[in-house]
């Protein structure tokens, strides 16, 4: 058992943890939207509310989903929003990531935006810059956002929605360096300038997201926009991790996943440096990590991009949350890919069966940090390290406006328990939750939906007014301390 001290530095705040960094992503890909979220109102025996499956709806209401991105992904650059409004919904080819299906467009703009209201999520719409036009995207923005009396707002009203939704976040394309049109960075920047200029005229308050990639592309697009920075609010980047299979991975794969998810931080820092080198404080442009998560080798097109989601992936998600907190001054939003069934999903379904993955529970464990002030958190555990020499225990903490302080801990070690002393979080009461299992391979399923679920964390007091707790190997925990 290893002794580790965690010191919360309430005197060293980092910044506010935007609710937007705890976002989710719903793409019309495989069984994410259709089947995972939406079963429609016809020909289904699955309980639903207006077409939305009830089990998933209830689960998403209990998990923080402050932001939801839709309808893609690669799907967005084929999507024509008019197909998904009104009573006549044409069946089109639904295309993304090599899957081509019949798409009846039953889940469209009204359904999606009303779902966001229901689950308390801010919507984030991804526009079509692959097969669409600036006019088409301007029209979608006008349809959603204008309060003036126009042909499009009349149409919105006749489709049942009087008030505009005022959607703030608009992606101008998706992965346009690849599936979204195979643009060069120069071509894309040129087109982006045109699209975003027109969109600004429709709704000057909308926040526009430019499609980024890695350093070279990001440098080119930002430099191309340097005299038009008012057109850029966020730079979209994506990060997927692979480290051995999702099921039956070994020790090496486990540690590889820990290391790979941690590499997200230098990537965010490098992206922030490129943005800053162009903006030089003239305009706040944030980073939108609007797709992130584990993409296991099992999640192939033939498998509808589905994978088992073990405890290991919840630990990888928790490592990412720590990064989000440390980088909260440059990271403005983030979306786990994807919210149901596809890739690193917090909820999974099979027919009428439904279960939450360990990652779902990780989101709930970290929810006290949402909207709070991230605090510097020092971990002193020099003797408790992973095989690569990096710390075995890591931590993040935040102060909420009600005076409480939340501290989340990750024991990254595969087989060693951590005994933790916690200082700098004064209070008289503490509660704690722990997510653990015998093995990081443990996962939930239709037959064992609660194999991995949070339990109470035992917390003790120490003589110096601090707290103590024991964190089993490959586990995550959150303590909340209040007066
Ligand atoms: O999330 C799956 C796919 O990954 C998205 O459609 C695309 O943007 C990315 O390549």
Topology record:
Elements: E1 2-16, E2 23-25, E3 48-49, E4 52-53, H1 54-62, E5 67-70, E6 92-96, E7 99-103, H2 109-119, E8 122-127, H3 134-145, H4 151-158, E9 169-172, H5 185-202, E10 207-211, H6 215-224, E11 234-241, H7 251-262, H8 264-279, E12 286-294, H9 311-326, E13 331-337, E14 347-350, E15 353-356, H10 358-365, E16 373-380, E17 393-399, E18 405-411, E19 418-423, E20 429-435, E21 455-456, E22 459-461, E23 467-471, E24 475-482
Parallel strand pairs: 1-19, 2-5, 2-13, 5-8, 8-9, 9-10, 10-11, 11-12, 12-13
Antiparallel strand pairs: 1-16, 3-4, 6-7, 14-15, 16-17, 17-18, 18-24, 19-23, 20-21, 20-24, 22-23
The site of alpha-L-arabinofuranose has 14 residues, from loops.
Count of DSSP strands = 24
Strand content: 25-35%
Largest sheet: 10 strands, mixed
Distance separating the two termini: 31 Å
CATH-defined superfamily of the largest domain: Glycosidases
Q: Looking at the structure, what is the overall shape?
A: globular
Unique ligands: alpha-L-arabinofuranose
The residue fraction in helices comes out at: 10-25%
What number of domains?
2
- Total helical elements: 10
Q: Which CATH first-tier class of the largest domain would you pick?
A: Alpha Beta
CATH topology of the largest domain: TIM Barrel
CATH architecture of the largest domain: Alpha-Beta Barrel
What structural class results from the helix and strand content? Answer: alpha/beta
Rounded average pLDDT: 97
Low-confidence segments, given as residue ranges, are: none
Please compute the radius of gyration using only Cα atoms.
Answer: 22 Å
**Within the largest sheet, what's the order of strands?**
21-20-24-18-17-16-1-19-23-22
């Amino acid at each position: 058992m290893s002794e580790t001290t965690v010191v919360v530095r309430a005197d060293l705040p980092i910044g506010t943890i935007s609710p937007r960094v705890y976002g989710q992503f719903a793409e019309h890909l495989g069984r994410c939207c259709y089947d995972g979220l939406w079963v429609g109102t016809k020909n289904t025996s699955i309980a639903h509310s207006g077409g939305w499956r009830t089990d998933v709806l209830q689960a998403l209401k209990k998990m923080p989903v402050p932001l939801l991105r839709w309808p893609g992904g690669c799907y967005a650059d084929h999507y024509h929003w008019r197909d998904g409004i009104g009573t006549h919904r044409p069946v089109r080819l639904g295309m993304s990531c090599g899957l081509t299906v019949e798409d009846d467009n039953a889940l469209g703009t009204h359904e999606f935006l009303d779902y966001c209201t229901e689950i308390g999520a801010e919507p984030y719409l991804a526009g079509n810059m692959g097969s669409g036009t600036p006019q088409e995207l301007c029209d979608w923005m006008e349809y959603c956002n204008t309060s003036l009396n126009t042909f499009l707002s009349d149409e919105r009203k006749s489709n049942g929605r009087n008030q505009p939704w005022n959607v703030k976040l608009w992606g101008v394309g998706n992965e346009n360096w690849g599936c979204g049109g195979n643009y060069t960075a120069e071509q894309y920047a040129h087109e982006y300038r045109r699209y975003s200029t027109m969109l600004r005229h429709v709704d000057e308050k909308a926040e526009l997201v430019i499609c980024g990639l890695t350093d070279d592309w990001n440098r080119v697009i930002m430099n191309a926009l340097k005299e038009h920075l008012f057109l850029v609010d966020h730079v979209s980047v994506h990060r997927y991790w692979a480290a051995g299979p999702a099921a039956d991975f070994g020790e090496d794969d486990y540690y590889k996943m820990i290391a790979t998810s941690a590499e997200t931080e230098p990537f965010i820092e490098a992206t922030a440096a490129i943005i800053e080198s162009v903006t030089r404080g003239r305009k706040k442009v944030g980073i939108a990590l609007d797709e992130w998560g584990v993409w296991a080798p099992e999640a192939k097109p033939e498998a509808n991009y589905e994978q088992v989601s073990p405890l290991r992936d919840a630990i990888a998600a928790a490592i990412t949350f720590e990064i989000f907190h440390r980088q909260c001054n440059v990271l403005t939003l983030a979306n786990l890919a994807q919210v149901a069934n596809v890739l690193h999903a917090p909820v999974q379904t099979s027919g009428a069966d439904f279960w939450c993955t360990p990652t779902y529970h990780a989101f709930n464990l970290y929810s006290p940090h949402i909207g709070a002030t991230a605090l510097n958190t020092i971990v002193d555990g020099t003797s408790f390290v992973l095989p690569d020499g990096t710390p075995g225990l890591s931590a993040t903490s935040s102060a909420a406006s009600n005076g409480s302080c939340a501290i989340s801990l990750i024991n990254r070690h595969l087989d060693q328990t951590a005994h933790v002393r916690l200082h700098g979080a004064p209070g008289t009461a503490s509660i704690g939750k722990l997510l653990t299992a015998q093995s990081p391979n443990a996962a939930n399923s239709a037959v064992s939906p609660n194999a991995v679920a949070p339990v109470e964390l035992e917390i003790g007091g120490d003589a110096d007014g601090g707290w103590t707790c024991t964190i089993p190997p490959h586990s995550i925990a959150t303590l909340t301390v209040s007066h």
